[in-house]
User: Fold this.
Amino acid sequence: MPPKQMFQKLSRNEWLVFLIIAGAAILSFVALDAGAQGDGFVHVYFLDVGQGDSQLIDLNGNQILIDGGPDSKIIQELGRVMPFNDKTIEAVVLTHPDADHINGLIDVLERYKVENIIENFLDRHDSAAYRKWNELKKEATVTQAEYGQRIELGNGAYLEIIYPLNPDNEQSKTNNNSIISRLLYGENQVLFTGDTETKIEKELAARKIDIDADFLKVPHHGSKTSTSKELLEAVTPEVAFIQLGKDNRYGHPHLAV
Assistant:
């Protein structure tokens, strides 16, 4: 008995119908990929960059990237949450130029159009990555971070700079020059802390600066030098995120944290 015929030649009209359906399916996947870009909500991504920091804020395709992690993995992570055809990032915030925050941003500057950069200018810091950063950033509008500065996202959402309080007062420890910022959207707040240590946390609390937030990016990967009682009492977070690499050599997060 001859085998049953599994396929048959399609007519021209049947091919046309097939192509229309296939095209619609492809467009639906594209729409799903870009769905978060136009739904009117703020999306905050804590990107998987290993032992380092990187967060992306997105509202209708307007993005703020905070730090870039230690290497080029940031490019893969951005490709996972941004549409493949979106090669522009409206603002990048470099909290401080330690390798686990700045190295990935070198790759970002080389592969994306970055329109604005907000950083804390440091005269005492020097490294190969920092020199490369200063060379590449010239294509963007660069601003010194200052207390009270706002980066508008639209729909009433904005990122406000909380620290440095005085840009001329450079701290001896790079971590304590970290930009601290807070995202506000409706009744929700997210606090981003870089690698800020206890000294600065206590200063903010003592000055009674408003850092209350629903969501906290735990400072310095959960190191014992940060996340003081004073910080937690001032922030009162409902949820906290710690960005770190699995089985890292630093012992992060510390048990006390």
